[in-house]
Design brief:
By secondary structure, the chain is α+β, with helices and mostly antiparallel strands. The chain contains nine helices and 19 strands.
Length: 380
């Protein structure tokens, strides 16, 4: 049996801070190739990616897994109880950056897939798409893999993204979608001058305050059957004016929006621009805006894939998982355009923290769940 605990530890020892490959994909390439998977590096720019397939190319039944081996920086290494890339074990925990997010998930699926194709070779194919750019810009990672797959005629019928999804206990939540995410930056320009001579200046501060209030107070929606209400949060207002007797020439503001499937990045951009234009007209300032859309909202409606995963989770844990769309973004936002996708992985509340760690038994439980998903999928 392939040991997911050992594979997790080996991966954690690879210092793969985005965009460094750190040896993680080299390790997976070797392990999967030895098990009969055809492995291809799909690197783009500074980013390393790995595509691994067992079975015939283009098979109508191809089950996919998407994950990443890149990790966020360790921060203050001296604050860690154990070395961030030491993969040391203590009291049932395995410590290290990426132990939770998400080298354990990659190891669990790889171990399950290797044992499955060796013991009960399926009538179909299994694909792993592993990127080194999930924690970074996410422009040359899973997107590059999907671009390459389209060019090469590679296809997944369904896919699991192995991000940590469970709030408290393994098996308590499956993600069937994600809210969209976008940010906007406003530059509000007035006219600088002495605060005692207001007739000679144009203060941008009241304008930015008015815009911040209107964006924050606006109710975008009341939520949907599967999504919480959309939100718009003011995240910073920066002027850099240390003098209390000087009206500044300009100030800047940023907002972040998390939105459900009632909206698109384009429709919200139009709303933001319209609000900015109104404030500019009312106050006489000039307002410029830049927007970055990180991902659109998406939903994989409850159905065959979520039921398949739910049944496997219940069989192995006794829990009935909640189908959720909460949390931030993930690479599922890219996979959803290729095939039906859901997310299921470990408990995630220790990811990105100092002393990031994973409960070792959960790694083995996750492998059992993934193994059952594969078995049930190909038995249908």
């Amino acid at each position: 049996m392939t040991d997911p605990q050992k594979l997790t530890a080996d991966l954690v020892r690879c210092a793969s801070v985005t965009p460094e490959e750190g040896g993680a994909l080299v390790l997976l390439d070797r392990v999967l190739s030895e098990a009969g998977f055809t492995c291809t590096r799909v690197d783009r720019g500074e980013v390393s990616n790995l595509y691994a397939r067992w079975g015939d190319k283009g098979h109508a039944r191809t089950f996919g897994f998407n994950g990443h081996t890149d990790v966020v920086p360790v921060g203050d290494a001296a604050a860690w109880t154990h070395p961030p890339f030491g993969a040391e074990e203590e009291d049932g925990w395995l410590y290290g950056r990426g132990a939770t997010d998400m080298k354990s998930g990659v190891a669990a699926f790889a171990a399950a897939a290797i044992d499955f194709v060796r013991d009960t070779p399926p009538d179909g194919a299994i694909v792993l798409t592993i990127t080194g750019d999930e924690e970074g810009p996410s422009t040359d990672g899973t997107i590059a893999l999907l671009d390459w797959m389209e060019a090469e005629g590679e296809k997944m019928s369904a896919c699991i993204v192995g991000e940590p999804t469970c709030p408290e206990t393994i098996g308590d939540m499956i993600k069937i979608g994600r809210r969209g995410s976008m940010s906007a930056w406003f530059t509000v320009k007035g006219k600088q001058g002495h605060s005692a001579y207001l007739h000679k200046v144009l203060n941008p501060m009241p304008a930015v305050a008015l815009l911040a209030h209107r964006l924050s107070a606006h109710v975008l929606d009341e939520g949907t059957d599967h999504f919480d209400p959309s939100t718009c949060s003011v995240t910073t207002i920066d002027t850099g004016n240390a003098a209390t007797n000087v009206i500044p020439a300009e100030t800047r503001m940023a907002v972040n929006l998390r939105f459900n499937d009632l909206h698109t990045g384009a429709s919200l951009t139009e709303w933001l621009q319209a609000e900015a234009d109104k404030v500019a007209e009312e106050t006489g300032v000039k307002i410029g805006m830049e927007v970055k859309i990180s991902g659109e909202a998406f939903l994989t409606p409850p159905g065959e894939l979520s039921e398949l995963v739910s049944k496997a989770v219940t069989a192995e844990t006794g829990l009935t998982p909640v189908l959720s769309t909460t949390g931030g973004t993930s690479d599922a936002r890219f996979v959803k355009s290729h095939c039906p996708v859901v997310e299921f992985g470990l408990v995630g509340h220790r990811m990105h923290q100092v002393d990031e760690r994973v409960w070792i038994e959960d790694i083995h439980a996750l492998k059992r769940i993934y193994a059952r998903i594969l078995s049930d999928y190909f038995a249908q």
